[in-house]
Structure formats: C-alpha cells, structure tokens
Amino acid sequence: MSPHKAVRLARTDPVRASRPVMLAIAGDSAAGKTTLTRGIAAALGQDRTSVICVDDYHRYDRAERKQVPYTVLNPACNYIEVMEQHLQLLALGKPVLKPVYDHSTGLLARPVLIEPGEFVLVEGLLPLHSKVLRACFDVTVYLDPPEEIRHGWKLRRDTAERGYTAEQVLAELERREPESAAFIRPQRQWADICVRFAPIPGKEVEPGTPLSAELLLRPTISHPDLSTTLTDDDRRTVHLKLIRDADSRPVDALHVHGYAPREDARMVEKVIWEQLPSGHGTPMPETLGRLADGTRSEPLAITQLLLVWHLLQARPTP
Amino acid sequence: MSPHKAVRLARTDPVRASRPVMLAIAGDSAAGKTTLTRGIAAALGQDRTSVICVDDYHRYDRAERKQVPYTVLNPACNYIEVMEQHLQLLALGKPVLKPVYDHSTGLLARPVLIEPGEFVLVEGLLPLHSKVLRACFDVTVYLDPPEEIRHGWKLRRDTAERGYTAEQVLAELERREPESAAFIRPQRQWADICVRFAPIPGKEVEPGTPLSAELLLRPTISHPDLSTTLTDDDRRTVHLKLIRDADSRPVDALHVHGYAPREDARMVEKVIWEQLPSGHGTPMPETLGRLADGTRSEPLAITQLLLVWHLLQARPTP
C-alpha cells in the first residue's frame, strides 16, 4: 500500500546476462546515422538487434512546430525525460512503448512496443544530450561530416523522401544552425568514437571514389589492437596516428582511405571480420558498406565492422 | 559506460513529499468507473488531480482485435508490463508518455504526456491485475454492480456513445463473460473498498429513486470512524454493519440508502465534507453525485466523499 513499494522493479533479479549491449549514434540531420546503423544491424543479425530512432520522441508534430520558437534540434522540442526512462528500461532488458514520429507525414502516430534484443542501436539527434542518456550506453558514436557534405546529403534526402522543396531545406538548415551549435555539436565531446566521412583535402580522385573515413578512437573504451591484426600491406588502406583532438585531448586517429584499391580494402574488412569475438562465425553480410544510393563504400564497411567488434566485445559474460 | 549505471534514477533524491497519492478504480465495462472518478476529481480539484484510464494500454485497435482470440478483458490484449512501468513512474512523481485508445473510433492514437498531480486517479478494466500494479496504489476500489444492472448501463452507453447496435453489445457481453470471470472479477479480492450500487431487494421505491450503495470497507486500510461523526438521525441514511464477505473474511459493510430523504442524505454529505482533513476548506462541488444522465445520486456522492477522505488522509506529511 505504501508508495515506497511502488519503486520495486517488476521482475526480481534481472540478471546481468539478459541486459542488451547499447550503442548510441548521434549526429545532426542527414549526417549518415541511418546508413551507418543499417549495416551494423545487418552484421549483428536483425533477429537479435533492435534499432531505435530517438527522433520519435519529438514533442510536437510538423504543424505544431510552426507555433513553437525552436526547431527539433532543441531538447525542449523533445520528450527528453521520457527518452531517458525508455533507454534506462531498455538497458535493463525491459520492453518500452516507444512513440512514433512519421517523417513522411510529419505526424505523431500510434506507439510501438520495443522488446530489446541482444543489441540495441539508438540513433538520432540527441541520444547523448544528458548524463542519464549517456549512462545508458556501452559504446557512443558521433557522426561528424563536414557541414557542406552534410548539407548536400540533407538536400538530396529531404527533397526525395520527405516532400520538401530545395528552398525549404536550405531555409531550414539556416534556421537550425544556432540550435545545431547549441545542442547537437556539443555531443561530439561525449562520444567514444567520432566518425568523419570526407574527401582528403588536396587529393585528386576518380569520380565514384568513396569518401575516406577518419575515426577518432577516444581512450574512454578499449579499442581493438589493430597493430597486431593488420599487415604492412593493409596500412596503405588503414593507418593509425596519435594526434590531439581540437580540445587538445590525446586521441588515436584511424584513417581509412577511400581511394585505396577496393581489393585491398576488402582484405582489411575480411581480416577484421575474422577477428570478431568467437561465436560470431557467420558470412560477412552483403549490406556492409552500402550507401543510400546503392553503391558501396569500403571506409563505411570498415567503420561498421569496427563498431560490430565493439558491440560483440561489450556483451555481458554469462 | 557499464549497463549497471543505467538503473540509476533520472533525478536524485525524489522526495517523498513530491509523490502523488494513487487511487485505483477497477471494474468491468460500464460498471460506473468514469462516473465515480469524475466526482472525486472535481472534489479534489482538477488542477491538482490527474485522471488516467488504463484501457489506453490496449495492445490492439478495434480492427486488429477481430483477428485475436481474446477480448480486451484479457491481460494478453493489453500492455500490462508497460502499464506497470507507467504506474510505478507516476507513483514516484515522474511523467509518462501514455498511449491513447480512442473509444469513439476504436483506433490507437498519438500518446500524451501525463505529469502527475498531487492525486492520480487510475480507472479501468485491469488496474489491480498484477502485484506490481497493486503495489502502486494507496487506495484500491472495485466497482461491483449486479450484472443485470451493468448490462443495462453498457447497452445504453455503447449504443449512444460508441457506435454499436444493441445486438452487437449483447453479443459482446456474452463473448466477454468467460474472460470477465477469469480476469476482471478476481480483482474484487484485492480492493480496500468494494462498491455495489443496487436496489435493495424487496423494497418498493418511487421511480427516480437513486440506487442504494453497499460499501465493503476492508481492514487493509484505516477507515474514518463514522460512529463519532454521524448522529442517530444520520443512521436512517447510512449505517455500518459487521459482516462476513463471500470468502468469509470479516468486513464492515456501509449501507447508504437511496430511498432516504434527500435532505437527510445531503446532511450526511455535509458532515463528511466538513470532517475532511484540514487544509481542504473549499465549498462542496456541485458535480458530486452526478450521474451520466445528469440526475443526482446521494449514495454516489457519499461514496465519492468517503474516497476523497481517504485520498486526503493518504497525502504524505511534509
């Protein structure tokens, strides 16, 4: 009868082994979150992986947002406290009734039950916004493409898939910039891994060459020892360099060259796939490295494989 | 980074005083839950009271239910575990994003944020179904009208407000009976107070006379000492009798006579209202005792006042 009783968990003794491994992929609109997430889910296995987009926690639908003084990038435009509750519950292996924001109509719709699999991949604008949110994750990623590249991606996607005109997208990007600076980009500091897909400055490449990737591997989690895994040949494709981050913190920068011969890159992928923690032993899925336009990016595939390595590594030991 | 961190509560030190008082009103379809709840909310004050219908936790919409082998009375037809989460959170004073089932369309709709007031009134088919649910409440009520009276109420409401034909309602009542027996009526045993509105058998009354009320006051919570509050005159309207319940447990039965002169009943209401715990001192609201058809039932008003007494009594002391 006393309210004190109410705090008890529904199930007694939630065993550590039943808790999922949680990955966050944060980044601005059209930074490539869905593309990155899709390949990771395929590599882990769709049947044991739950994918959640936290943009579903938008507080207002598209029409209502016209009456509020902020954009969806603002935490005030999202149910952050409910997002915190739900991610905490998922981290404990419990189901949640997740709200649904329909990007194609701009409406908030009927919620869906999410029963967490062995892995929960959480992508969206603000998954690293608060300390409570960050504490829910085993591995955190921030996607950090150069702004001009991201703007091009957003223009292409929002006109093709979300029913906006080019003018509307450009105006929206401008309107969002202050809140992007205030709320989205600060999340970069909290990521274990920052990923930047970009051309290498000054380097001439053939048309159709994938963007290179720079992965900042922060010492907040243990990274695989690539020095023993990769051969000297592999280093033409992938190399590691100790640098200082913009805030002067030391960090390992892993460079994956988009202009490397595809066969060499595929060899690196194979080496990483075969080094994945035991018990994985399935063939490497075709969807790794697949871009929205159907072409393949080896730097993307290698990034996805590295994250798969982390997720398998973080699995609770029974 | 470890999943263990994720279990921490979002806010540190949720103080006992900020937790709401929680009331459950359980009962079968059309047992009078909404009517009872409405007057209690009015008496407590709409601004400090949240009302929740747990039938919003239906798992399927009306069309989908045609494809499942059970009715809405079956826990399998409801998100019981999510209901448990949400009531636990509300009992701690936290907001929840509550699903919405629209009775007029039969569709599941956009969820709404509920930020609990000082009092949370929870009504529905299954709020006392599980131990976790029951532990969330300070006071629990089961509405237990005779089946023939409830069938009449359901027929009237579902044809007038929910777009069903009389034949459909009668067929549905028959279809639901096994699950009513299996899941709804067993909740009666868990209630602190069982309320039955019914005519007194063998008693001839004028048309328009309100139904009498029998309230079983179980010793699971402390009830007001009516023996000191009520005068001998009042006992013509209200009297208390020690009986054995159907399961042979001892229980106080409070009888409120619908055929008593209205002035006498109003006097009893006034006496109870004035005895309410200090700090309430507002005029007695007009909505107390109001039935769905707009007429007034003094036994209903007295029942509502007794529950208001319990909720004010259960408030945490600062």
List the helices and strands and how they pair.
2 copies of one chain form a homodimer.
Chain A: E1 21-27, H1 33-44, E2 49-53, H2 62-65, H3 80-91, E3 96-102, E4 107-114, E5 119-124, H4 131-135, E6 139-143, H5 147-161, H6 166-184, E7 193-198, E8 212-217, H7 226-229, E9 238-244, E10 250-256, H8 262-274, H9 298-313
Parallel strand pairs in A: 1-5, 1-6, 2-5, 6-7
Antiparallel strand pairs in A: 3-4, 7-8, 8-10, 9-10
Keywords:
two-stranded antiparallel ribbon; eight-stranded mixed sheet; globular; disordered N terminus; 318 residues; alpha/beta; homodimer
Radius of gyration of chain A: 20 Å
Low-confidence stretches of chain A: 1-17
Distance between the termini of chain A: 36 Å
Instruction: Estimate percent helicity of chain A.
Output: 25-40%
Class derived from helix and strand content of chain A: alpha/beta
Order of helices and strands of chain A: EHEHHEEEHEHHEEHEEHH
Count of helical regions of chain A: 9
Proportion of beta-strand residues of chain A: 15-25%
| Overall 3D shape of chain A | globular
Q: How many DSSP E strands of chain A?
A: 10
> What kind of oligomer do you see?
homodimer
Sheet having the most strands of chain A: 8 strands, mixed
Strand order of the largest sheet of chain A: 2-5-1-6-7-8-10-9
Please state the average pLDDT score of chain A. 89
What does this structure look like?
The structure is a homodimer of 318-residue chains. In chain A, helix 1 (33-44) crosses helix 9 (298-313). The first copy, chain A, has nine helices and ten strands. The first copy, chain A, has a domain at 192-313. The first copy, chain A, has helices spanning 33-44, 62-65, 80-91, 131-135, 147-161, 166-184, 226-229, 262-274, 298-313, and strands spanning 21-27, 49-53, 96-102, 107-114, 119-124, 139-143, 193-198, 212-217, 238-244, 250-256. By secondary structure, chain A is α/β, with parallel strands linked by helices. In chain A, the strands form two sheets. Chain A has an eight-stranded mixed β-sheet with strand order 2-5-1-6-7-8-10-9, covered by helices on one side. Chain A has a two-stranded antiparallel sheet with strand order 3-4. The A-B interface holds A 1-3, 5-8, 10, 16, 19, 22, 59, 61, 79, 81-82, 84-85, 87-89, 91-92, 94-97, 99, 107-111, 113, 132, 135-138, 220-221, 316 and B 1-8, 10, 16, 19, 22, 59, 61, 79, 81-82, 84-85, 87-89, 91-92, 94-97, 99, 107-111, 113, 132, 135-138, 192, 220-221, 316.
